[in-house]
Amino acid sequence: MPVVELFRALGDPTRLEMVQRLSRREPHTIKSVSSGLSITRQGARKHLQILADAELVTLCPEGRETGVVLERDKLEQGKIFIAGLERQWDARLGALRRYVDKDLEK
Amino acid sequence: MPVVELFRALGDPTRLEMVQRLSRREPHTIKSVSSGLSITRQGARKHLQILADAELVTLCPEGRETGVVLERDKLEQGKIFIAGLERQWDARLGALRRYVDKDLEK
DNA sequence: TAATAATGCAACTATATAGTTGCCTTTTTA
DNA sequence: TAAAAAGGCAACTATATAGTTGCATTATTA
Fold this sequence. Notes:
Two copies of one chain form a homodimer.
Chain A: H1 2-10, H2 13-24, E1 28-29, H3 30-34, H4 41-53, E2 57-62, E3 65-70, H5 72-105
Antiparallel strand pairs in A: 1-3, 2-3
Helix pairs in contact in A: 1-4
Chain A binds a DNA duplex (30 and 30 nucleotides) through helix 4.
């Protein structure tokens, strides 16, 4: 289930910070996306690997440095998944509960 | 950062299955939302607690059993957060990159 | 009221995860 | 070409997490 890996990847403050940096500014290198995080380079590198394994990010080695690119489509998949949950909720019990609530107000 | 907890909560196959069950059908009890998961009752209960701590779910004890209610608003917060990332991406480098790509095609 | 159903609490194990340090390689650049 | 910059790989530690088992509690129901 790839969406589980996506949510797991987003479910860490360091990684979410990285994703926010990438959404705000590109291009980023491993260095720039990892700077000022109060963890070591290798610690940050592990987080980047998790993002890459979840395909939320692509690493592009070029010469001495490695570019980090955010995969917007993957974010979209997460949004679509949540929207699907909401749609089902709306369709079934949500509608019923709203009906019952309204009925009880009388 | 509450959205980190939300994503962390969704980033596990058992918990995502529970959330899907809740989105498809309500009401659910701890028992019903935990049945057939190939883990013990207590294992499932721990997952439910994580969902409750993330405020994705509310536990409502009533007599002998405890109702489990999905908090739709929390899902919505996740969707909105992702949409915000996408919006920033679209506004900044995404637009620039598309421009450069188009330019290179000539 | 005795049995059963639904659940809670606590202790325990095993594995995964976050983070570190040390050292090596490759590419720029002064 | 020597130094610096960016990064890879591996081993290690500590803590968090998933999952278990055992036992106790509270509500129903036969």
